[in-house]
Amino acid sequence: MKVLFETPRLQVRTFAATDDAFVLELLNTPSWLQYIGDRQIRTLADAQRYIMNNLLRLYAEQGYGAWVVVLKETGKPTGICGLFKRKYLEQPDLGFAFLPAYEGLGYAYEAATATIEYSRQQLPFSRLFAITQQDNHRSVRLLERSGFTLQGTILPPGEVEELMLFDLELGS
């Protein structure tokens, strides 16, 4: 695992196979299941496969992906934040999710704004997108507070529900 950047309270690093218990817990939280979807991760072995086949593979293929957000004070993983390349979007989108015990404490905002800054300085993108369900009011507020602008809605291929589409110019 590699530390990519830090904030006053957080460290953001790449995933490792040893993050399996964290992945198992996060991907089965009520908010993950409601707003992101059921990935059918039910065992530590499922979580390890998910890490290897999805998360680590994206680093190799794209040079970015989802990253673990860790509390500096304790070293405990609290959530994820990172960039996701969707086939139906021309640039990556910012995504984040946190364990319930760490929601509402400003960690998501801190990680999101640091990820935006990291993208601006280290990655070759002129803009980022973000998508969320229309009833995910906490994510909408976080995106707007982070500088994203609502562009409208989008119906991703194979989906039945339109998602809110936000974008953020990163500048040159």
TrEMBL record:
One of its GO terms (molecular function) is acyltransferase activity, transferring groups other than amino-acyl groups. Residues 10-169 form the N-acetyltransferase domain. Pfam families: Acetyltransf_3. InterPro entries: Acyl_CoA_acyltransferase, GNAT_dom, N-acetyltransferase. Keywords: Transferase. This is Protein N-acetyltransferase, RimJ/RimL family. The lineage of its organism: Bacteria, Pseudomonadati, Bacteroidota, Chitinophagia, Chitinophagales.
